[in-house]
Amino acid sequence: MGITGLFVLQDASITATSISTLHDKVLKNYGKVLGRWSVDYKLFRESAAPAGGRGDGKPAPAFFSQIFISSFPDDVFCLVDEAPGAGAGPLPVEAGQPGRKVLAVFDRGIDSIVSLKLQNMWVLRQSMRADGTSYQCGADYKVCLANVTQTGLFKFVVAEVECVNETDMDSARERIRAFLFDTLAFPTEGRFFWGDTLNVYHGTDEREGFTKADTAVQYLEVFRARPGA
User: Fold this and answer.
1) Residue ranges of domains in the chain
2) How is domain 3-225 classified at the CATH fold level?
3) pLDDT tens-digit profile of 102-154?
4) Considering the entire predicted model, what is its pTM?
C-alpha cells in the first residue's frame, strides 16, 4: 500500500448532507466508485476502577480501543493504554513501560473474546462509525469518504486519502494536501491526522515503512480526539 492521511471536516457549516457535494467533487475528478466502505471504533474502560480514577493511590483505570476497517476485513486493530504502574492490559501483548500505548493487530475473533469472555473486566464506553464510499482516482490516489456518527447522530466528515506507491511521508503529505485542495477543491477549514501524535509502540523497534497499522493509528487519532463531539 501507499501512504494515507485523514482529513476531518468539523466546521459548524458541515452537516450530514454536506458529503453529497464532496462525493460530486471526487466523481468529477476521475473518481471511480470502488464500493461501500466503513470504519468502526470502540473504546473500553477497565471496569474495576471508578470513572474519575482511583482515590486509594492505586493506578488510574486502563483503556483500550478497537478499530475495524473494511479495507482490511480480517483484522482488528487494538490500542492498549497501559495505566501507570499497570501490566500489559486486557490483551495478550508484551508488557511495556508503564503508561505507554501499545498497538496490536488481531484477527476478527478477538472481538468475540472481548465481548463474551472479558465483559466483566472491560466496559464499552463509546462507539463511533464511519460509513461511506471508496473511490479510485486515477493511478495515484484512492479516496474513502464518509459521515461519522455516534449513536446515530452525525458528528463529522472524514476523508481518507491514499497516495498510492508513495514511500516518503513528507512527500505524501504535500501531495495529499495538493490533491484535496487544488484538484478536488475540498474546503480548507478542516484538520489533518497523520498518526504521529499518540506515541504508539507497534511491538517492534524495526519499522518496515508505512503499513495498514499506521492507517489504523490515524483513525485512532481521529476518534480519540472526538472532533465535533
Assistant:
1) 3-225
2) Hypothetical Protein Pfu-838710-001 (2.40.320)
3) 888 888 766 666 665 566 677 888 999 999 999 999 999 999 999 999 999 99
4) 0.83
